């Protein structure tokens, strides 16, 4: 706790000096100063300053002030020494906007001689930038939230919780936020990005090697903590507990916490209530499926970045076919470009369909109709018998329709056979249910969440 | 303060220190120039808190003192004055400029508020080198440095002193240039080798203001460097960070090596790159007929072109793509009539070498095929 004392002491000194000198002077010379060390025995304190200019100036002009107010607070101090602390400096040359010789995207294809490494301190990959994040109606809330956070770190939306399905750009947005904070605040703010798996592994390592303190320090000593895929810590009690404490420490000190998950906090299973309520205490923003225009914009940018010659028509086709996953969108685009390169020919609709099916192939495990019916029943806590029965209560109708939809979507069963399995219903009833659910899925996010969860449960149980 | 200075001397002083003007909205005084007298010299200084430039001009000092005025106004006035002798004197914090038929008062600030320019602490250790040699070496690598927000450690040039040579290296991670200066071209009393990184802006100022005549003394301390000639002092911070370890990407031998006329190659590249679009991609091909290098580029929407260039070559056939701009940058740093191009297949870094200067090379990565 020695460090905290030094910080408090120095904050006191700065507070006193701030009213005695002009604001520009204070901002220029003392704002990034720090009390580094105190040698109790000699009564010496060491003040770190960002550059030689500040050192000369402070030493010559403010020494008396500093020594005076230090002694007011701690009479054992007799000597003040000044050193230049090595730290990243602000930019020297400003690149003009619109005059950037090469954007990152353009040089993507060029092989770097020295790879851009993932920053070991922050774990951030510089490849992700806010500039390359395409904003559409599906993600504008999340985007607005992170821009607000960047402007006002730790104060405005804390914690920020972003959720959305697989491959919709959560990681991109999170990493870009970290990178942006790093560059806006010129490394003055410590950013740490981890996946929840990394967090978990660190915990395990700490427990096994009796180094929990190191781990705690690492996580609690940061100004912005970004955790990706937080849902994975659900059910891991010790990790959850540790995260809970880390969360509290950071939160109380006004440090920014940003999390992402594939579902809303309320929908994360087996997570402790106290943690859930904390997640819900800040800002929750969702990223949903991109609309057609956004998908097309993503494809266009991607094609442009890589200078791929591809017809607008083909892009439109892809945007039309792949609806639920940006990663798949890019996968299809890659394949189409590859196909065109090899065949030296423009792609046609039929071939495109094949490629889409290849990439978007669903993970077909051996799932039986019974699995689906059983899982839906479990989820809604109704018995399969109820589902088969002629009952038309609302509590039963919705699960029944969802079952029909899932049987159609996951197993590709025929409408008559679905009707047969669910209490000998007519195939038109089934068709109605399927169209209704697939329509509502796009409008009703609660329903969408439910279905995602059920699908996951089915996949797990099979 | 009161002094008389010759028009030309004053203009030269202002030209030299202009690059040090700061752009810090917190501290408006950084837009000012400090004029002070010391030991019969008139010193003009500017600083942006990253580097400071001071120019020692001679003139007749009638009364010692110091003052600070905005650089912009002051240099506009001086730039338009034609009379040979100019008198500068202070009236409180203001500056009075007088010639035979002109008089101006420029509002100034308290010179006490001007930042104190730091001194370097170990002045007895230094490297002394001909200004022209040092500047030419910097010119050979500066093309490879490009400002990057992501990686501050390559926003400058590696200055590596190793007793029997001085090595300068610049890179933007896509290409890299290295220049060695052998010990017979400089004097030094540093007993140990060291490495540090000079900021790009400092290099640009050295190239801009230091004249080719005379010697340059370089003083280095833990976090700052001083470049000193008879009239000029540039003191700069050093970049804190570790320059990337690049030795492993420098190719040692080549599967294909070719010698080509530099001007012809540059012309061919400029011409063929017309069809190369935004990434400036041009392809180089050495086929069965080894007497020629084929350079071509194509764009589906625009068209294509080919250029055949006579070369001397040995080794494997290949087709390799480059960013044309990077290739041209490499050629620009070269004064020779011919260049050597060393290649190792279409996926490995290539090297440009000079037949005459063994102390320089330029490595660049190909565009992935």
Automatic annotation (TrEMBL), chain A:
One of its GO terms (biological process) is regulation of DNA replication. It is found in: Cytoplasm. It comes from the Bacteria. Signal peptide: none annotated. InterPro entries: AAA+_ATPase, Chromosome_initiator_DnaA, Chromosome_initiator_DnaA-like, Chromosome_initiator_DnaA_CS, DnaA_C, DnaA_dom, DnaA_N_dom, DnaA_N_sf. Gene3D superfamilies: 1.10.1750.10, 1.10.8.60, 3.30.300.180, P-loop containing nucleotide triphosphate hydrolases. Keywords: ATP-binding, Cytoplasm, DNA replication, DNA-binding, Lipid-binding, Nucleotide-binding. One of its GO terms (molecular function) is DNA replication origin binding. The keyword Cytoplasm applies. Residues 156-280 form the AAA+ ATPase domain. NCBIfam families: DnaA. Domain I is involved in oligomerization and binding regulators, domain II is flexibile and of varying length in different bacteria, domain III forms the AAA+ region, while domain IV binds dsDNA. Plays an essential role in the initiation and regulation of chromosomal replication. ATP-DnaA binds to the origin of replication (oriC) to initiate formation of the DNA replication initiation complex once per cell cycle. Binds the DnaA box (a 9 base pair repeat at the origin) and separates the double-stranded (ds)DNA. Forms a right-handed helical filament on oriC DNA; dsDNA binds to the exterior of the filament while single-stranded (ss)DNA is stabiized in the filament's interior. This is Chromosomal replication initiator protein DnaA. It comes from Candidatus Jorgensenbacteria bacterium RIFCSPLOWO2_12_FULL_42_11. The lineage of its organism: Bacteria, Candidatus Joergenseniibacteriota. The gene is dnaA.
TrEMBL record, chain B:
It is found in: Cytoplasm. Residues 248-366 form the DNA polymerase III beta sliding clamp C-terminal domain. One of its GO terms (biological process) is DNA strand elongation involved in DNA replication. It comes from Candidatus Jorgensenbacteria bacterium RIFCSPLOWO2_12_FULL_42_11. SMART domains: POL3Bc. This is Beta sliding clamp. SUPFAM superfamilies: DNA clamp (SSF55979). Residues 1-118 form the DNA polymerase III beta sliding clamp N-terminal domain. GO terms for molecular function: 3'-5' exonuclease activity; DNA binding; DNA-directed DNA polymerase activity. Forms a ring-shaped head-to-tail homodimer around DNA. PANTHER family: BETA SLIDING CLAMP (PTHR30478:SF0), DNA POLYMERASE III SUBUNIT BETA (PTHR30478).
């Amino acid at each position: 706790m020695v460090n905290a004392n030094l910080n408090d002491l120095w904050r006191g000194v700065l507070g006193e000096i701030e009213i005695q000198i002009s604001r520009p002077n204070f901002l220029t010379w003392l704002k990034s100063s720090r009390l580094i060390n105190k040698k109790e025995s000699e009564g010496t304190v060491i003040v770190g300053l960002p550059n030689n200019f500040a050192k000369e100036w402070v030493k010559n002009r403010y020494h008396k002030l500093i020594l005076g107010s230090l002694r007011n607070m701690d009479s054992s101090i007799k000597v003040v020494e000044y050193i230049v602390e090595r730290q990243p400096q602000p930019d020297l040359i400003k690149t003009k906007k619109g005059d950037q010789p090469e954007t990152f995207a353009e040089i993507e294809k060029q092989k770097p001689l020295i790879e851009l490494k993932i920053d070991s301190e922050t774990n951030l990959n510089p490849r992700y930038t806010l500039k390359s994040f395409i904003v559409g109606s599906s993600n504008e809330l999340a985007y607005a939230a992170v821009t607000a956070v960047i402007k006002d770190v730790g104060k405005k939306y804390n914690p920020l919780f972003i959720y959305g399905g697989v491959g919709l750009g959560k990681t991109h947005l999170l990493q870009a936020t970290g990178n942006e904070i790093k560059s806006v605040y010129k490394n003055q703010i410590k950013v740490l990005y981890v996946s929840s798996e990394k967090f978990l592994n660190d915990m395990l390592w700490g427990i096994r090697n009796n180094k929990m303190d190191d781990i705690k320090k690492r996580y609690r000593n940061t100004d912005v903590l970004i955790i990706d895929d937080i849902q994975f810590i659900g059910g891991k009690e010790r990790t959850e507990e540790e995260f809970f404490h880390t969360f509290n420490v950071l939160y109380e000190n006004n440090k920014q916490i940003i999390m992402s998950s594939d579902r809303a906090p309320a929908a994360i299973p087996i997570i402790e209530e106290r943690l859930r309520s904390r997640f819900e205490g800040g800002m929750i923003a969702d990223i949903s499926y991109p609309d057609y225009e956004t998908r097309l914009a993503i494809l266009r940018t991607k094609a442009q970045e890589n200078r791929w010659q591809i017809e607008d028509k083909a892009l439109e086709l892809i945007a039309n076919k792949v609806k639920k996953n940006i990663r798949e969108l890019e996968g299809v685009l890659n394949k189409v470009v590859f196909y065109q390169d090899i065949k030296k020919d423009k792609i046609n609709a039929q071939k495109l369909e094949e490629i889409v099916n290849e990439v978007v192939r669903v993970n077909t495990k051996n799932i039986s109709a019974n699995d689906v019916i059983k899982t839906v029943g479990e989820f809604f806590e109704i018995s399969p018998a109820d589902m088969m029965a002629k009952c038309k209560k609302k509590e039963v109708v919705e699960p029944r329709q969802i079952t029909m939809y899932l049987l159609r979507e996951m197993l590709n069963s025929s409408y008559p056979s679905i009707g047969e399995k669910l209490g000998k219903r007519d195939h038109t009833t089934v068709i109605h249910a399927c169209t209704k659910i697939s329509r509502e899925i796009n409008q009703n996010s609660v329903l969408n969440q439910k279905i995602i969860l059920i699908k996951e449960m089915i996949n797990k149980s099979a | 303060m009161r002094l008389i200075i010759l028009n030309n001397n004053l203009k030269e002083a202002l030209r030299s220190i202009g690059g040090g003007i700061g752009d810090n909205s917190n501290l408006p005084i950084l837009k000012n120039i400090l004029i002070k007298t010391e030991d019969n010299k008139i010193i003009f200084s500017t600083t942006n808190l990253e580097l400071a430039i001071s120019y020692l001009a001679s003139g007749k000092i009638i009364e010692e003192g110091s003052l600070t005025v905005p650089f912009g106004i002051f240099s506009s006035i001086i730039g338009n004055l034609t009379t040979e002798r100019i008198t500068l004197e202070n009236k409180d914090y203001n500056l009075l400029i007088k010639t035979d038929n002109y008089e101006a008062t420029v509002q100034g600030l308290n010179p006490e508020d001007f930042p104190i320019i730091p001194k370097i602490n170990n002045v007895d250790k230094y490297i002394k080198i001909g200004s022209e040699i040092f500047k030419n070496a910097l010119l050979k690598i500066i093309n490879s440095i490009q400002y990057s927000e992501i990686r501050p450690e390559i926003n400058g040039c590696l200055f590596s002193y190793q007793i029997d040579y001085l090595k300068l290296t610049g890179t933007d991670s896509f290409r890299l240039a290295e220049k060695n200066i052998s010990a017979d071209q400089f004097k030094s009393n540093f007993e140990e080798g060291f490495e540090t990184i000079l900021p790009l802006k400092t290099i640009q100022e050295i190239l801009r203001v230091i004249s080719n005549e005379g010697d340059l003394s370089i003083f280095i301390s833990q976090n700052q460097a001083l470049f000193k000639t008879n009239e000029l002092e540039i003191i700069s911070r050093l970049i804190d960070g570790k320059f990337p370890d690049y030795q492993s990407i420098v190719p040692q031998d080549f599967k294909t090596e070719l010698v080509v006329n530099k001007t012809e190659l540059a012309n061919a590249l400029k011409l063929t790159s017309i069809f190369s679009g935004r990434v400036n991609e041009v392809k180089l091909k050495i086929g069965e007929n080894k007497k020629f290098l084929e350079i071509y580029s194509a764009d589906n929407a625009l068209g294509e072109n080919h250029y055949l260039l006579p070369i001397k070559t040995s080794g494997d056939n290949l087709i390799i793509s480059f960013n044309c701009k990077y290739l041209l940058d490499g050629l620009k740093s070269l004064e020779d009539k011919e260049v050597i191009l060393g290649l190792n297949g279409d996926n490995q870094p290539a090297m440009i070498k000079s037949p005459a200067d063994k102390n320089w090379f330029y490595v660049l990565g190909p565009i992935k095929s």
